[in-house]
Every structure is written in C-alpha cells, then in structure tokens.
Amino acid sequence: MFPWVDGFHWSPGHIIFLSLFFAVVLTILSTIVSAVWRTASDFRTHRATEMCWRLNFAELPEAERRCRHQLAGRVPHRTCDNAFDCRHCPKYAELAALPARNPSWNVGVNFSNNLLYHRGHTWVRSEDDGTLTVGLDEFAHHLIGHPDSVQLPVKDSKTESNGIAWRMMKNGHEIRVRAPIDGTVVSTGGDKHGWYLKLRPRDPVDLRHLLRGAEVSGWLSGEVDRLRQQFSTPNAPHCLALGGPLMPELMDAMPAADWDTVLAAIFLEA
Amino acid sequence: MPDLLVLDRRLIARGVERSSTMRFVFWLAPWVALLALGIYAAALCFYYGLNQTHMDNRFAFGMWIYLDLGMIAMGAGTFFTGFLVYILKQEDLKPILNSAVVVGLICYSGAVAVLMVDVGQPLRAWFTFWHPNTHSMLTEVTFCITCYLFVLILEYLPVLLRNRQLRKVPSFLVFEYQLHKLVPVLAGVGAFLSFFHQGSLGGLYGVLRGRPFAFRQGFAIWPSTFFLFILSAIAVGPSFLMLVTAMAETLTGRRLVQPSVFRKLGSISGVLLGAYVAAKALDTLVWLNITSPALGFAPWDYYAYKPFGWALLFAEIVPLGLLPAFLLILPLTARKRSWALCGAALGCGGVLLNRFVLTVQTLALPTLAFDDFLRYIPSWQEVATFAGVIAYGVIVYSLSYRYLPLFGQAKGGDKNVSVG
Amino acid sequence: MSARYGFVIDLDRCTGCGACMMACAAENNVPPAPARATPRTGLTPMLVRKVSNGIEGTARREAFIPIACMHCGNETPCVGVCPQQAVEVDKATGIVMQMPQRCLGCRYCMTACPYHARYFNWWDPAWPVGMEKSLNPGVAVRMRGVVEKCNLCPARLHSAKEKAAAAGKKEIDPADYLPACAEACPTGAILFGNLADKNDPVFSAAHSSDAFRLLARLGTEPKVYYQSKQAWVKALAERDSDRATEAQHA
Amino acid sequence: MKVTRRDLLIGSAGAVAGLALTPVPWKLLNDVSIWTQNFPWIPQPAYGPVETKYSACTLCESGCGIRVRMAEKFPVGVAGVRSHPLTKGALCPLAFAAHQLNWHPRRLREVRHAGRAASWAEAQAAFQKACGEGPIAIVDGRPGRAVSSVFEAFTRKHNGSYQAVLSAESQALAPYADWSGVPVASLGYDLENARTIVSFGAPVLDGWGTPGRFTQLWSERAAGAADPQLRLIQIEPSLSRSAARAWRWVRVREGIEAQLAAGLARVLLEERLVTQPGPMPRLSLAEAAAQTGLAPEAIRDLSHTMMENRPVVVIAADGNPAIAALNVLLGAVATPGGIVRKRGEVQPHVPDDPVPESIRAMLVDSTVPWEFAAQANAEVFRFAAWDGGGDRAGWLLPAPGFLEELTDVPTSPTSALPTYAVAQNLVALPIGVQSAAQFLVKIDPTMPAVEKVIHARCGEIFRSRQGSVYGEHPIAATKVDSAQHLEEQLRKGAVWMGEPPSPGKFRCELKEWPMENRVAPATSWATAWVPPVFPALATKLYQESNLREPPAERRG
C-alpha cells in the first residue's frame, strides 16, 4: 500500500495500480468534502433557509402553487414559479394593477382586511412602533384550537421568511409554522395572547409578498375546499357542510382523521 | 402498534399513496424471516469455519462465488444508466435512475457480504489493501468493488435524504441538493470502477492457466474474458432493471415509468447483447481451436461429462444470447412489453449461465489425466446465506420504494394490489 | 548461485505404501482429520494417488503417483492470483512459499492450481488429548481458514542453513537438507535435489529419456519430475493423450 | 442549555469521525488480525532442545532400526536408520506416526476387570489364586525375546504351559520345520540371492517380513524393467499392491493355492524340469486347471517361466504345506536364494508346550494380536497397550506402549541372518502401566529380570565372536572389547548381525505330496503390518489417498 509497508514494489504495474486507486479515493473524498463545504457555506450566507423553502416549494402539488392574482381573480390561471416571493416577481406590478374580480363571500372562516396573510396561515400586522406582529390565522386556529405546547424562538433571534418561525405540538402532531417575513424577534406572545411574535423587520421593509384583500378570500376558500375534500368521508361532520362556519378545535373533534397530511398541506410541507 | 402506523404514515411522502401498514408488514414478514435464517447460517460459518459448507479442496469455490458474479453482473445496470444519463446525457432515462441506484446498492453490498462469509479469515480481509498483489485479478476486484460500494452509498444518499422526515432537517436538505449537483462526478468514477471490476471478474477465471477450460488469451494483462464480462454486464444490466421495474409495477399495480423508457433500455440491451454474442462466439472459436489445444487439452473432452454437454455452450450462445438480442432489437417484438420482458429475462439467464459455466463447470472438470469429474451440492448453510441476501435485497427495495422517491414523485394512488 | 530444488520420482519404484504421506504429515504437524472430513477436505501436502490403465481384468495395470506441490518455475499459477502476496517464489531456492499467517483464505490459488496440490484448513487443528506433545518443534501449526501446501519442509532447510552458518559456510551441505517424504521412501523412489546443479543426481534423472512432468504443456515448468519405463504411465502426463481419451469414452 | 436530538446526532457523528482519526481503530484492526494468526485454542509445538536417539521399533517383530527425535522427554519424530544392515533406513508407513500412538484415544491406562475399573493388586491376587489352582498358560506373540524366557521360566515353575502365537511369516516356514526338525526361528529366506520369486498371495511389497528389506531389493533389481534381474511373480485373485507392481500377475480363484501348486508340480515332474524326483501330486493338470481357473497352458507356461532364471523360491502367505512342498521340489530348500538356516542360535528356541484340555487362567502378552481367541473356559489376563475393542478379556491390563519398556529384539522371522537389538525405554512409563514381565516378577520374585536376561545374551553374542555390530560405524564383533561395551552399544541403538548362512545344513524329505489347503489357525493374523490400533494420522491419510482402505476400526 505504502512504500514503507511490506509487499510494496517499485514496479510500474504496482505504481500505476496504486496511483489509480488513490486518485479514485481522492475524487470520492473531495466530492464528499466539497458537498459538505458548500452546504456549510450556504448556511453561513443565510441562503440555506431560502433553498430549503424553494426545494419544498418545488415539491408542492400544482394546486397549492396558484398565483395570488389567480386567487384574486385578476388572471384566469397562473401558477407561481417564484416560490411565492412576489418581491422578485417580474410580473407582479403589471398583474397587481388588474382589477380583482372576486367577490369576498363568506368562506367559513373570518379574516380581516387590514391584516396581511402569509400562505403558511400566519397574519402580519404592522404596529405604530414599526414592529410587526405575527399571529396564526383563524383557519389554522379553528383546526388546532389550543396547542398543547408552543416552542417559540428566543428574543433577538432572527427569522427568515418561509423559514420555520415556531413549532407547536397538538395531539402528538408537530406543527412547524413558517415565518411570513425576515426580521428580529422583539417579543414573543403565544396562544393566549392571540399573537405569537413581535418582529422588527429587516430593512428595507417589503411586505409585497403577503396576501391582502380579495386574494385572501380566494386563497382561504381554496384551503377550505381542500379541507372538505380531505374530509369527504361518509361520516363528515356538519361543520364542513357547504358554507357552514368552520367548527373550532377540529383536531380534537376528529382525532381519527389523517391530520398528518392535512397539517402538512396547510403549513406548506412537501 | 399505533405508533408504528403513525411512523409509517409520517415516513411516506405527502400525497403518495401506499398500501396499508398491515399489508406491508405481511409482505415483509416472510422476507425478514428468510433474512434471519441467512444471518444464522452466516453466523454458523463464522463460528465453526467453512466446514459448514460443502466446498472442499477440489471445489474450492462454490455457489457463493457463482452468485457473487451473477449479482454483480446484474448490478451493472446502475453504473451504465448513470453513465448514459450523466455522461452521455440521455436525460430520458432519468426516471429509472433512483431505482437503478437502489438495485446496484443491493447487488454490490449483498455480494460483498457473501464474500466476507466466503473467505476463511474475514478478519484479515484488509491485508488485500495493505499488501496488495497488483498482478492478481482478485486484488483489482476487491479494490474496485469496495470503492464502488462507497460511490453507490453516496449516490443513494440523495435519494435517502429526500425522505419526508429527513428532508425536514434543513442541513440534510441542502446537503442533498449540493451532493446531487456533484453526482455526475460520482457517475464518472462509478463507470470507471465498474468497467475494471466487471472485467476483472472475468479475468479472475480467464487468467487461470492451470484451468484450460477457463483460460483465454487476451491483450496486455487482460484475457478476453475481461472484455466479454464488461460487454455482457452492460448488456444485461438494463435488462435486469427492466425486469425489476416490471416486477415492481406488477406488485404495485402501477405504471412507474413510461413505456418509452422501457423501449430505450430494451434496445440498448439488445444491441449490446448482440455485440456480446458475436464477440463470445468468436472468442469460443479461438479458444476451441487454438488456446485449449495448445495447452494439451482436447476441447471435446470438456463436454464429455454429463450434465455439462455441448448443449450448455449452445444454450449460452443461441437461445439465451442471439434470441433475446433479436427480441429486444426487432421493432415487432421490442414494442410489445411482454416480448421485450421475455427477451430481457432470457438475456439475464444467458449471462447467469455464462457465470455458472465459468465458475462451476471449470472446477468440476478434471485437469490431470487421472482425475475424475467432480460433483458438488451446496450445503443448506450456503443456500440459506444466499437466500438471506435475496431477502435483504427485497426488503431494502421495498422500504426504498415505500419511503423514498424511487421513480420521481409518482403522486396518486395505487391501483389494485399494492406493496412497497 | 541460486538453487532450484525439486523431485524426480520413479513411479516404477513406488509401491504406494504411503510412507511419504505419513512422514510428511508428521513432519509438518498436520492434524488428524475430524470424523466429518471427507477424502476431499483433508490436509495432504504429499498425496499418493492410485492410477490405472483404465482396463479391467488381467490386462489391468496400476501404479501410484505421489503428488506434492510442483513448485512451478514459470507463470506459477498460484503466485500470480493471490491477492495479498501470501504466496511467493523464493528466488534463492525456487521454492513456492505459502505463508499461512498472511493468507486470507479466499482459495483462489486452489482453483488456480492444476495439480490440486493445495489444501484448505476447513477445521481448527485438533489432536487427541496429550498428543500435542508429539508435535514437531519448529513447525508452526496452521490455523483454521487458511490454505497450505508442500513448502519442501522449510524447517529442515532452515536447520541446514543454521548448520552451514555455524560452520561459516555460505552454501548448505545437500546431505543436510532432505524433505521428510524423500527421506521416508523405503524404495528410494523419491529423489530430491537441486535441479540447477549439473552434478546433482536429480539433474541427470530429470533429463533422462524416461522422465516426464505432469501437464507440462501448460508451460508452468513444474519442478517435480516423474520417471517410468511404462508407456501407459507416461501417457498420464497429458490430458489429451490417447489413454485419457479412451478412458473417457470407455 | 437544552440538548436537542439534533445536537446528539451531530455529536455522535463528530465522535465517529474523530475516532477514525485516532490510532485506536487501526491498532484494534491490527491486533485482531494478529490474534487470528495464533488463536489461543491452537496447540503450540514444544520448543527447546531436540536430541536424537537410536533404537529398534517394537511395534512388530521386524524390529526395524529407528531414529527418534526427542523434545522435552517425548518423541516428536521417527525416521529410519540408513546404517541399519537389514532395513537400510526403510520403515513401514505407520512407524512415522508411531510416536503419536502413546496418546491414542484407545491407549489403556488403568486395569479393567470385566469392563469395570480395577487395581493391579486385585489382578495380582486373582492371578496368584489361579496359579494355585492351575493349570495356567502364558501366550507370547513374539517368542525368543528376553521376556519370552521369563514367561517360560514362570510356566515351568508354576506347572503351566508356554504358548507362542506365530505371525503368518513364521507359519509359512512351519512346514519345513516339521519336515527337517529345524526350529522355525532358525529358518529364513535368502532373497538376496534369488532370481525368481513366486509369491502365492503373500503381500511381499506390502508389509511382508521386514519393511524395506525386500522392497529395496525389488526396487534395485526389478522395478519397471521389462526383463528384470529379479522376477517377481504374484499369484493372487485380486490386483493387490504387490500384484500391481509385480513383474507378472497371475490371476487365480480364491483359496486354490494347493491345487495350483499341485498343477505346477505335475508339469515340473512330467516335463523333467526339476532334477531330483518327488512324489507326484494326485491332482491331474486338467483338474488343477479347472479348479484354479487357469488354462492348462497357463500353468505350463508359469512353471516354465519359474524355471527360466533360477534360483527360484516360492513364498506362501501362510503355513500352506503344498507350497512348501513346491519349494522342496524346486530345490529351493537349504540352497542359496531359497529357504536357509540361520547360522548360530541367538535366541534359545522355546518349544510350544502341548495345550492342556482345560486351562484355569491364561496370561496373554501385549505382543499377541488382538484377534487371538483365548480358550473359552479360562480366566484371561490380557496385557495390551491399546484397547482393540470388543470384550476379549476378563482382565485388561495396561501394558507399555511405544518406547516405554526395555526389551530386546531378536531376529526377524524372514531374515536369513541372525540379528539382535535392544529397544531402550526412552519414554517414562506412565503411572498405572506395567509389562507382563514386571507383573510376573511381582508375583514370583525369583523370576529373572529382563535386564539380566538381555545382559546374559549380550555376553553370549560377545563370546560367539561372530558377525559385526552396526552402530555409528559398523565394527566386527571381534573388535568389540567387552560384553559390557557390546551391551552399551546395543542399548544406544546399535544392532548386531551374525554371519551369512552356509548352504546345506538341513534336509526336507517329502513322503507324499501334501494336498490339503491348510486353513490358517485362528492365531495367525494378516501379514501386512496391522497395529493394535491405527494412528489417527494414518487412518486419515489412507482415507484421502485412494491407496487402500484403512483396516476396519475394531469397535467395542
């Protein structure tokens, strides 16, 4: 193997063989090392969260990747190819100008027109002091009810949009809630407070990617429809009857349901 | 038990429907039992030594070596498709790639495991690396197979990390992404390694001057069997992938890959098989008329012993070589799935027969004028050990199919029966 | 000058008594085979085989062929194939050396050997209680799972060298180095010596008209010669001889 | 801080990676493979000085010269002695594993009575009682040894009878003894001067007589030659190893030696092929041919071939008088190259006593083959070093094994020259083991000790001033300065050999042609050297080579 090991010969055959072997070993090792190193650097440069999100987004079924403008009825059909990040979407401005053709009927859950919504079922409210409050929207709230436990980020920790902002446990299911925006945690609330995080947004503040107005109703109705489909079993509870208000604490009401899939769909997991 | 159900569900990618946990468990149970038996048999061999087998001084290689050669030949589809996709840019074969990687991993890890049982002093196996005799084909095989096994593991890693739970860990997901970008490099290395060890496995017997039935002339240090093995391996590798995929499709009752992929694999297999048969025939003629007589061995002597008659040689070349080649090439049959699969099966059979002849018949035939033809029946330990490897393969493939994106994310539900 | 040790075995003189086998086994601490051993799983570095002219009845003739490692001098089949240099040809003596403590037990060399002169330790070596006291000092017992064969009694060569060294000589005295089998043969059928030495009796014997080697056409230059005046015995040298063929089709 | 699962994963991964960088795993790997190179359960050969001793093998009556390598007081190797006048360095195959026999699983180490463990004291008491009641018999397997005379003395004193069990070689000589009155022990074959040897089924190349003596003669004068100096004609039903290597193999039916001999005799007499006349066999050539399964021509040819180059001698497998008669007819008795009388009487000839009707007790020496069937009603005291299996004796008494007792080795039966050697007790006698002689001396202290007898015989040889002593270098007996010195030499492994025979000296008269195929008595055993037990090594080796089946294991 090596010149100092018994059985090594300085013969051409031996040298060629071993050098080829070492070349192969080095190639394999360098492949691993470079993969690891690139991974590490992605984390150093904070590209990791973004990449994870985009990899997940790529795996989402098409129905869940509809463009906000389709939700608002501005365009008949459009699928987002930008990981829901309208900030860098070339067509955003042009499409946003179109009129929304989508009357906001009752979708079964309430939503507020002065809140901005993220597709991961969080809302964002800008406060006077320039911070942003983040909470769980009513749809998610109805489903989960009161979580058994909440694991919130520590103060001054950073959140990245579409990264995991906080985790909750409910009936043995882990719920990973995606952060709507980039920012620094100023203070943390919880289930009782009605909000979960207060963030100081990273400058420049840009909330363009969050849903508002007609988009929200379109989006939520879509979510409710999917929920209906997922629960379209013979013994479906009346709460899901067409138009009826969403029954609170659905997870407690129907423990047998395939919540794993449902929650994954709701919180944008592939 | 409910935990198991939950775990099972959580491991299956969202939106992918798989058979019920119970059904899956019932499918796995017999294989697990078989694997346990195999492990027990191997343990016997480790503890009491190889007297547990029916090998002996004259039949020093037995069933295990034969099946190793066979498995590795079947595993050749992996490096070859990798080579086609990443080096020759045959993108349309991509859907089969993940499945191919798993098949390769099973074949190679299985073969290495059996080899470890087969040697008398497994604890000294590393001597081969420490004091290598670079003239030995076995050294070449050992080095290449070990390295290639690592490559396969690396190629399998991205597939594994795409599992629903594992991908939740951001670092895993990113690593998978980065590694996947580098896979072409691995494919290249894999192709290089496989080329050599497939060949060396042929050389293994081709260099045996003392066994004129196996001995062949060749270029430089490599006997003709070196090249024949490479050719035959890459010829049936794709066929074997077709068979495995087809089997998975019947078991799951779902179309996993487009017919076009099948056809492409088939035609590649067919063409290479044709080339192989031609080369093999030529080589046989040279051997019968020049090589063997020169060593003082009349060729007809080899085939004077039943059950190893000329029929074996004929079967290897015509019904299990030429015929499948035609079945896979001719549009008429190639387009028909059943015919194509039949051709693939025959092709694999032919190469397996070739490996059998080279390993078993070579040892059974007498060399000294006063020697007799030898017989050898493997012991149950030998059979069980190998059965264990088969079971291991089925288990790994089933688990991979169930929890990993083997054929892209084939969303949508299974049809009738569904395992894996 | 480097020696080429080898045998010239006169098959006409061999009565097949098996003394060479016994002496070899005793010299090299070969363990008795366990009850489960078959004729094909034992250890016989020297093995005498009975051969016949393939005819039944009064015309039948039989002879005995002692077979040990042939110590092939050219393209030595077992040396080339060993993956970890556990087999080597000693340049000074021409002896093909098998090193059990280096062997991994892959048995590739056994498939390579056309003479079947290599043996695998299928069992742990074991003797009846107390019999280990009768083991030959200076010859290590081989462990299970390795290949062994005739190394031409290296212990005897070693002591011959020591003796020569003590006497301050470079070359060993040929009389001091005689493998157990050659020493034991009651009819003097086994002649041992240095084939490279023109004055050595084996040289002339090996070049006599009656001398032949087994499977010489393989081109491995075995250093074990055989000798016989009988045509049918000579015919055993090669596989595709008439006798072999008719024996096949008989 | 809180340790999450993630931290654990990373930690363990790091630990594994880190460990690989330390020498620990590599050292472990190395040590493990070193361990495989000397598993603790593998026996290690003894180390320390190896000394070489010379002696005579006592496993059979041939008494070949052996060179024994001793390490830590135990024999670790047996080889022949080139300077030995009779065997010239040859040994039978089994002798090479003889040093392992003492550890054979069947080695006897304690007294057994009726299958149960007993003590020497009990055995002694029982034998003493038997002597009191009488009559007793002592059976000796190798008459003519110092021990034999102890046996004889004991039987004389305690109104017993001395019985000798003869090997087949000796029995083959018995007819001449009957006809000439010369004791069997004094007769031998002068093979060195014969030119044609006709063996009636005697395994002459397969353990007959002294290993090496005839095989070497054959390999020098006969092997392979088309027209050899020494012709070996083997008459045997099957292609035995002797037949396979013989100059001619005559295939005959089983057990028709006498008929063939008669047929040959007829041809010899009718065609005047022999000079001196003899009684004509009653059997006609045609009848002989019919019974032997040979054509009359074949028998005629055979007799002609026999006479082609002479001297010719016929060797019988056992004491068949018809074949002995053939030798007489051929003039192969008391002539060079035939049956000769040894010069000088080394061992006093001990005559067999008539066997009494009923014997109270029978002491069977360890030299008597296991097959020996003792008289039914007698109480048997069986000495044996190895248990041959079966229930052969009331008393089974452990006797010394290989090289464990001092004994002398008289002339081998087939030898033409008298020899005398002494086998030293190179190995310490195991506890609880003693020889028949020691047993008898304990019972009757007036019995002479073996040492004394040997000493006396050395004295006789010294005074006879005949032959020479073959030690490191052979010297004429006349050159030996004292009996003391001679004994020392012999005890060191030298062998004395007397003068070659002088022709004549005895005659055999044939009244009429003996016809019966004398059935070998129960006391005879296969001529090929069959040990009380087969060395484990040999059993295995013979199994692996296709030489011959190992003797059927005698199971209890």
State the main characteristics.
heterotetramer; A: 270 residues; alpha+beta; OB fold (Dihydrolipoamide Acetyltransferase, E2P); six-stranded antiparallel β-sheet; three-stranded antiparallel β-sheet; 8 helices; elongated; B: mainly alpha; Formate dehydrogenase/DMSO reductase fold; 1% strand; disordered C terminus
What's the gist of this structure?
The complex is a heterotetramer of chains A (270), B (420), C (250) and D (556). Chain B is mainly α.
Average pLDDT metric of chain D = 86
Main sheet: strand order of chain A: 1-2-3-9-8-5
Show the largest interface.
C-D, 67 and 70 residues
Instruction: Enumerate the spans of chain A where pLDDT stays under 50 for 5 or more consecutive residues.
Output: none
The order of strands across the largest sheet of chain D is 5-4-16-15-14-6-7
CATH superfamily of chain A: RNA polymerase II/Efflux pump adaptor protein, barrel-sandwich hybrid domain
Kindly report how far apart the N and C termini of chain D lie.
79 Å
Q: Strand count, sense and closure of the main sheet of chain A?
A: 6 strands, antiparallel
Sketch the topology of chain A as an H/E string, one letter per element.
Answer: HHHHEEEHEEEEEEHHH
User: Which ranges of chain D are low-confidence, i.e. pLDDT below 50, for 5 or more consecutive residues?
Assistant: 520-529, 550-556
**What's the helix count of chain D?**
16
Report on this structure.
The complex is a heterotetramer of chains A (270), B (420), C (250) and D (556). Chain A is an alpha+beta fold. In chain A, 33% of the residues lie in helices and 17% in strands. The model of chain A has no long low-confidence stretch (mean pLDDT 86). With 420 residues, chain B is an all-alpha fold. Chain B has a single domain (55-376), classed as Formate dehydrogenase/DMSO reductase domain (Formate dehydrogenase/DMSO reductase fold, Up-down Bundle). Chain B is built from 15 helices and 2 strands. Chain B has helices at 2-11, 21-48, 63-74, 76-87, 94-118, 127-130, 137-161, 170-206, 224-252, 259-294, 299-302, 310-329, 331-334, 337-364, 380-403, and strands spanning 218-219, 222-223. In chain B, a hairpin with a 2-residue loop joins strand 1 and strand 2 (222-223). With 250 residues, chain C is α+β, with helices and mostly antiparallel strands. In chain C, the strands form 4 sheets. Chain C has a 4-stranded mixed sheet with strand order 8-1-10-9. In chain C, strands 2-3 form a two-stranded antiparallel sheet. In chain C, strands 4-5 form a two-stranded antiparallel ribbon. Chain C is globular. The mean pLDDT of chain C is 91. Chain D folds into 3 domains: 50-101, N-terminal domain of TfIIb; 112-166 and 346-497, Rossmann fold (3-Layer(aba) Sandwich), CATH 3.40.50; 169-344, Dimethylsulfoxide Reductase, domain 2, CATH 3.40.228.10. Helix content of chain D is 31%, strand content 16%. Chain D is globular and about 120 Å long. In chain D, helix 5 (146-157) crosses helix 14 (450-464). Chains in contact: A-B, B-C, B-D, C-D. The interface between C and D is large, with 67 and 70 residues.
